[in-house]
Amino acid sequence: MPNNKKRRGRLSFKAMMKNLGRLLKIMWKEYPVHLILVVIMTALSTIASVIGSVFMGRLIDFIDQDLLNGATTIEEANFAKLGEMVLIMAAIYLVGLLANYAYQRMTAVMSQGVQKKIRDQLFNQMESLPISYFDRRSHGDIMSIYTNDIDSLREMMSRALPLVLSALISIVMVFVAMIIQSWLLTLVVMAFFVIELISMYIITKNSARFFIAQQRALAKADGYIEELTTGQKVVKVFNYEERAKKGFDSLNEELCTYTTKAQRFSSILGPVTNNLGNMQFGVLALIGAYGIINNVPGLTVGVIVSFLSLSKAFMNPVSQVSQQINLVSMALAGAERIFALIDEPSEQDNGYVTLVNAKAGEDGNPVETEEHTGKWAWKHPHAADGTVTYTWLKGDITLDHVDFSYIPGKQVLKDVSLYAKPGQKIAFVGPTGAGKTTITNLLNRFYDIEDGKIRYDGININKIKKADLRRSLGMVLQDTALFTGTVRENIAYGNPNASEEDIVNAAKLANADNFIRMLPDGYDTMLNNAGAGLSQGQRQLLSIARCAVADPPVMILDEATSSIDSHTEALVQEGMDRIMNGRTVFVVAHRLSTVQNSDAIMVLDQGQIIERGDHESLLAQEGKYYQLYTGGKALD
Amino acid sequence: MKILRELAHHLKGYWGQVIGAWVAVIIEVGCETTIPFMMQPMIDEINAGANDVGKIWFYAGWMIGLAIVSMLGGFLGGYFASGASAGFGKNLRQGMYYKIQDFSFENIDKFSVSSLVTRLTTDITNVQFAFQMILRMVVRGPLMLVMAFTMASITCFGLSWVFLIAVPIMGFGLVFISIKVHPTFVKVFNTYDDLNNSVKENLEGIRVVKSYNREDFEKEKFGKVSYFIYQNFAKAEKLLAFNTPLVLFTVHGTILAISFLGAHLIATDFFAEASNPFTVGELSSFFTYTMQILMSLQFMSMGFVMVIIARNSAERIFEVLTEKPSLASPENALTEVKDGSICFDHVSFRYSASGTKDVLHDINLNVPSGSSLGILGVTGSSKSTLVSMIARLYDVNEGKVSVGGEDVKSYDLKVLRDSVAMVLQKNTLFSGTVRSNLSWGNENASEEEMRQACEIAQVADHIDSYPEKFDHPIEEGGTNVSGGQKQRLCIARALLKKPKILVLDDSTSAVDTHTDALIREGFKSKLPEMTRVIIAQRVLSIKDCDQIAIIDDGKIIALGSHDELLKTSKVYQEVYESQLGGGGDFDAE
Predict the structure, then answer these.
(1) Of A74, A482, A442, whose CA–CA distance to B205 is shortest?
(2) Nearest alpha carbon to residue A420 among A554, A594, A552, A607
C-alpha cells in the first residue's frame, strides 16, 4: 500500500535535474516567446536595479563634489546637471519597473498555462490507463498529484524560477559593479559573504531537521484527529472522551515541542542575515575611511555609499535563493510523480474488429449501412487476403479454458470454461473471493486473460476494438458511480445521443421514473457528490436506467449486497429483471430469485467452476450449491 | 472582534512569551533605526577627509554594537514568537478538541464530521501560521514606520514630508491590489473544488467511464474546468504583478525625489551658511530610512493579506469554540442503572435543524429487563433515531424515555451510556490492535474477558487464526478485516462493557445468517439478563424476539411477537414472504 510517508522521500540531485530539464522543455515548447522574453525582461529589470545602485553613488559624488564646485551663489550651482542625472536615473528605474511588470505578467501566464497543459495531460493520460493501475494506487495518492504536486510546481514556476534567475544575474552584475569601483571594498563584501554562507548552511541544515520532525508530528496529530473525529459518535457511545483527550494531548504536546524548535531555528536566519548586513555597513565605512586616508585610488564617499546598497544587493539574492531551495526540491519531487503518471503506459488496444450499423442483406447476412438501424454487426477485416466479413451482433459468449491472475503467480481463475447463448442468463454464485466479479471484468477487457480464449459471436475478443467491445456490453456495478450533473445527464451517460423519450423510457424500464419525478427538479435535479442526496437504492435504479439507455445486447450485472429496504429492493429487482429480458446476461448473484431464474448457474470456489447447471439439477447434486442454498434455512 | 477575543483566550500561559517577543521586537527596531543615525556623521566625517580616525572608529563601533544587539533582539524575538505561536496552536487545538468531546450527536450532526476534521486540522494550521507571521509584524511594522519616520524627521524635518506622500500611495496601492485580487482567488479556489471533484469522480467511476467509452467526454469536461482555473488564476496573478512595480515605483521615486530635494537643501544650507547644514551623510541615511519605511509597509500589506486568508479559518474555529453542547448530565445525577428495562412514554422527536416534521411520533414501548425487542422498517423510517433515545444521544421533544425505571435525563450521562451499549450502524474500528479496539469497551478487561466476549460475538475463531491473536493489527477504519468480522468485533467491543442493555443497529448485515443466529443464541444463553434491542433488515435476525416493532415514517405501525404479527400485520406478512418465501438472501460469505 502506498502511503504518505513514502511520498515525502527526497530525490537524488540527478533525478531532480532531469525533472527540471523536462519541465523547462515543456515551458519552451508551449511558450517559447514568453520564456525568452521572461529571461530578457528579468535580466533587464535586474540590470536596471544594479545600475541604479551604482548610479546612486555617482549622484552622491556629484552632490558632494561637483554641485557646488566653483559656485559662489546658489544660482550658480549646477542644478541643470543634477536634474539631468535624476532624470537619467528615473529613466533607468522606469525601464526596470516596466521590465519587472512585464516579466511578472508573462510568468503568470506561462506558469498557469504550463500548469493547465500538465493538468490536462495528466487527466487525459489517466483516462487512458488500464484498470489495474487504479487497483494499485490509493485514490488519495492520485488526487494529491493534481492538488499538492501541481501546486508546488506552480509555486516553483511563478516564484522560484524568476527569483533564481534574477538572483544569478544580479550576483554577477553586482560583483562586476563592485570590482570595477573598488577591489578593497569588494574584498570586505566577499568576507561577509563567506560568513553569511557558513551561518546560512548551519542554520538551514539544522532547521530542516526540526522541520521534518515537525511535519511528522503534524501528520501524526492530524491523523489522530481525523480518525477519532470520524468515529466521534463511537467515542460518545463508549464514554471514550477522556481517553481520547489523553491520546490527543500527548500528540499535541509533541507537535508543539517540535514546532517550537523548528520555528526557533528557522527564525534565526532573518536577524543573522539582516544584521550581518548592518555590521558590514560599519566595516565598509571603516575600511573605506582608511582607504580614503591612504589615498586608495578611486575610492570616494560616493563609492562607499553605493557599496552600502551594492552589498545588500549582493547578499539578498543569496538568502532569497536559499529560501527557495526547499520549495524547489519539493516541487521537483512532485514533478517526479507527475511525470511518472504521464509516462505510465496506456491501455493497449490492438483490436481491429469494429461494430457497425447494419441491415440484413438479401441472403440475411448483415450489410454495413450509414444510418442507425438498431441492428449491429461486427466488421472483421482479414489482413491475409484483404477481405472483410460481417457477423451479426448477437451476444453469444464463450470462455474457453481461461486462466487469469492479477499478480503474476497468484492465480485467481483456473481453467474456466463456459458458454452463453444469446438471450441466456448466466448466474455466478460462490463465496467472497471466489472470482465471480473477476470473470465479468475479463469480458470487457478491464483485464487481459493469461491463457485460454474468450469469444464474442465467435470472434476472439482480443481482436475487437475495446471501445466497440465495451459499447456492446452494458454494466451495472455494485458501486454505482454517479457524476456531478443532472439526473438526465447521468442517465444519458450510457448513450450521449439518447433522446428525451429514450431517457424517460429507460428510467421507466428501470423503475426509476417515479422517484425521479418526486425530486425537486425532476430530471433536471442536480446531483452533487456522487449523488450523495440519494439513497443507495435510488442510485442503483439510476445506474440501471443508465445501462438501459445504452441498450446493449450483453449485460453484466453485479447485484448489490448492501442492505436496502425491502420496498426499494423490490423496485430494483423488478428493474433488473426487466432490463435483463431478451439480453445475454452475466450476473454476480446474491438473491435467490435471480439465481433461480437463471438458465445456468456457475458455482465458483477458489477461481474454479466447481458445479454448473440449473437450480433443480444443482440442488439434486447436493453439493456446494445445495449447502449455500440450505445454509440460510438451516435454522428454520 | 469577538473572534479575536475568543482566540486571545487561547494564548493563556503564553502571554509572557508574546510580551517578550514584542519587547525584543522593540529593541530590534530601535537598533535598526538608530544604525543609519550613526552612519550619517561617519560618512560626513569620511567626506570631510577622515581626519579624525577615532571618530570613525567610534561610530563604526556603535554601528557594529547596535547590529549585535539588534541580532540578539531578533533571536529573542524569534525565540519567544515561536514559542508563543506554537503554544497558541496547541491551546487552540486542544480547546477545540476538548470542546468537541462535549458535543452531543446533535452538535456533531450540525457541523458534520468531515467539517469538524477540516476545522481541527487545516483551519488550525492556517490560523497558527498566520498568527506566527503577524505576531511580530503587528509591532514591527508600525513601530518601524514610526521610528524610521521620526529619525528621518530629526535628521531633516524639511525633507521628511516626502514620506507623507509616498506612504499613502504605496499603502493604498497595496491594499487596493489585495482587495481587488481576493475575490478572484476565492473563485479560483472554489473551482479547484470542482476540479478535484472531477478527478475524484473519475477515480471512483473509472469502470463506468470505460465501460461506456466516455473518456473523451470526461476529458472535455475536465478541460473546461482546467481552462477556467487557468483563466482566472492568470487574471489574479496578472493583477498581483502590479505589486512589485508599485513598490519599486514608490521606493525609487522617493529616493530620486529625496536626492533632488536633498541636493537643493545642501546647496541652500551651504550658501545660507546654516549652523546645522544638511549633509551628504544625512542624505544617504535618508535612503536607508526610505527602505525601512516602505519595506515595513510592504510587510504590513503582507500581514493584511494573511489576515484576509486566515479570517475564514478563524471564523470556522470560532463557531466550534462557541457552540453550546446540547446535552449535559443533570445536577445530582443518578449514578446507578437499576436494571435493563426500557420504556418509551408518548415520545416525539424532531431534529432541530430540519424543523417542523416529527421524526418520531408518539412512540410507546415497554421492554422488560432481560427481554428482547426487534425493530423492522424501511430506510428512513427513523429506526436508528428511535434507539438513539435509549442512550440519550438525543433528547426527546415530548414524552419520556426511561431506563431502569428512571427518566434517562436523570442519569449521569457516563453511567447511562456505560449501561446501554450501542453498536452503531456506521461501525468504526480504530487503528491499533484487536486488543486496543476491544479495550474501548473496558480498559481493564482481562484476556479471559475479551475471549468470552469474542466467543459470544462469534469472532474468537478468527482471532485465534491470527498469529498475533489479540495483538493482530487493525488498520484505520478496520479496512484489513472483512465487513462481517468488523461487525462482530464491534459487537464484542460493546459486550465488554457488560451492559444492561445492548442495542444492535443493523449490526449483523454482513454476517451470514447462520453465524447471526449463533450470536443471538449466545446472548440468550450466556447473557440472559441483558436486554437486547435489535434493528435488522433481515426478518430472520429478529423473528425470535419477544416483541417486534414495525416502524414506518416515525410511527410504530405494528407491535407484537412473530406469531402475532404473522396473523395481524399485513406488512409483516409481506416482508416475511418476500424474504423467506423465494426472494430471500443468497449471500454466501
Answers:
(1) A482
(2) A554
Q: What is the mean pLDDT of residues A593-598?
A: 77
- Classify domain B342-584 at the CATH superfamily level: P-loop containing nucleotide triphosphate hydrolases (3.40.50.300)
B288 phi-psi bin (left φ>0, alpha ψ -120 to 50, beta other): alpha
Q: Which residues pair with B45 in a beta bridge?
A: none
Residue A163 to residues A38, A157, A322, B321, Cα–Cα distance (Å): 11, 10, 11, 42
Q: pTM value?
A: 0.76
Answer yes or no: are the C-beta atoms of B434 and B470 closer than 8 Å.
Answer: yes
Contact A434, A605 (CB under 8 A): yes
Triad B500, B506, B512: Cα angle to 5°:
105
Tell if the CB–CB gap between A68 and B79 is shorter than 8 Å: no
Contacting B residues, span 224-253, partner chain A, CB-CB under 8 Å: 226-227, 229-230, 233-234, 237-238, 240-242, 244-245, 248-249, 252
Query: What ranges in B241-334 are assigned the alpha helix state H?
Result: 243-272, 280-321
**CATH architecture type of domain B2-321:** Up-down Bundle (1.20)
SS3 of B511-580: the string is CCHHHHHHHHHHHHHHCCCCEEEEECCCHHHHCCCCEEEEEECCEEEEEECHHHHHHHCHHHHHHHHHHH
The secondary element (H helix, E strand) that includes residue A492 is helix A487-492
Interchain contact, A236 vs B585, CB within 8 Å = no
Span B242-272, pLDDT tens digits: 988 998 899 889 988 998 898 888 888 888 8
C-beta separation of B15 from B87 below 8 A: no
B558 touching A, CB under 8 A? no
pLDDT of residue A122: 92
- Edge-first strand listing for the sheet containing A473-476: A473-476, A554-558, A584-588, A425-429, A600-605, A608-613
When scoring A31, A60, A472 by the number of chain B Cβ atoms within 10 A, the one with the most, hence best to mutate, is: A60
**What is the sign, positive or negative, of the torsion defined by CA atoms of B55, B61, B67, B72?**
negative
* Cα B24 to Cα B146: distance, rounded to the nearest angstrom: 17
pLDDT the model gives residue A8: 46
Closest CA to A584 of A457, A414, A468: A457
- Containing B586, the helix (H) or strand (E) segment is none
Residue whose C-alpha cell reads 438513539 in the numeric block = B388
Interface TM-score (ipTM) > 0.85: no
**Phi and psi at residue A558, in whole multiples of 5°?**
-115, 105
Question: Residue B579's pLDDT is what?
Answer: 67
Q: What is the pLDDT of residues B510-569, one digit of tens each?
A: 777 778 888 888 888 888 889 999 988 778 788 888 999 988 878 888 888 888 888 888
Nearest CA-CA partner of B512 in B489, B484, B491: B484
| Range B46-76 burial, b when 16+ CB lie within 10 A, else e | bbeebeeeebbeebbebbbebbebbbbbbbb
Cα end-to-end span (Å), chain A = 44
One-letter identity of residue A433: G
What domains lie within chain A, and their CATH numbers? 14-342 (1.20.1560.10), 423-450+463-631 (3.40.50.300)
Q: Which of A244, A293, A484 sits opposite B197 (nearest CB)?
A: A484
CB contact under 8 A, A252 and B70: no
The CA distance from B61 to the nearest CA of chain A, in Å, is: 7
- Please give the sequence-ordered ranges of beta strands (E in DSSP) within B404-552, or none if there are none: 406-407, 420-423, 432-433, 473-474, 501-505, 531-535, 547-552
Confidence bin at A433 (pLDDT 50/70/90) = low
Going by pLDDT thresholds of 50, 70 and 90, the confidence category of residue B578 is low
Please give the Cα distance from B498 to B340 (Å, whole number): 12
